[in-house]
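chain below, 324 aa
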Amino acid sequence: MMIRDRVNAMQADQSYPLEENNKRDEDEIEPALRFGYRLVCSTALYPLEYAKTLIQLGYEPIAPRPGRTLFGAKRLMLPNIFQYAAYIKSVDGFTGCFRGLSARLLGNIISSYYSEKLSLVLVPPTNSGTCRLNNPDFDRMQSTFDDMEEYINQENGPTKKQRGGIARQAVAHVCGIIISHPFHVVSIRMMAQFIGREHMYDGLFGSIKEIWVHEGIAGFFSGLIPRLWMDFWCMALTSAITYLFAKYVGANKTVCGHVNTIAHFSVTSMLYPYHVVSTCMAVTGSRLKAGNPPMMDHYINWRDCHARLRLDRQHKRGSSFFFR
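prediction:
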């Protein structure tokens, strides 16, 4: 019996590191799969993003046609985003619908990798054993942002990875935006040259050279401030709404997840004008026809752009996919 117990103990000791390694491998593979799925979805939906970008820039090549609103009223309507994407395909072909995709994907990949690394350096993660909200003796009214985020994102039992809280997520998000923005500008300008039929931004390296020669380093960060402003407030307000709901109404994970999704959609819709401003400012200052009069005014800064778009009631263009 002693020998058998000793053998069983040795087998248990050997299986424990294997289980830990398997869990570690699963934790590393799952985010990679999610990121790969996100890239595939971004690629598949890119023609719609292309059409939306041109609409945000104010380019309407198809005249309005008689149509009906959602409530049945007759009025002139611009083509929906699918008809707009079909028009781009009729002009540039199927591959033309993916102009600027390479820069967009490269920016997403680089920012996804380095933003996480930078956030770990700037805000070290904390050990997060079992979430305190799973403890029935814990007072939910004393919970913090980190408790709510940990509770919503965990699966069964303890959280799968160490979390650094809201601060580290915010730092990672901001770093990701800053790192990806030069590629974001290149991608938008590749799409914007469809308006004037230019060929200044045909390739990734040629586009980088074009911006560097004529605008310098500042050209790579055109439109960064309104993009940061929108994303920061979107993340802050969404987290605050979810936190307050979980704290004062209930902390059910499923319900909190739905509340988080609804809050994110609502806040994004409210802050959408800053997305339009960021897109316009990314093109302003370039040699493209899309960024110069008469297609686009010269703006002093992004606040001036936002004020003029709001004055002309153009600050929400591109927000509707169907009834325009």
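The chain has one domain: 1-312. The CA atoms of residues 114 and 176 lie 7 Å apart.
thats it, cya
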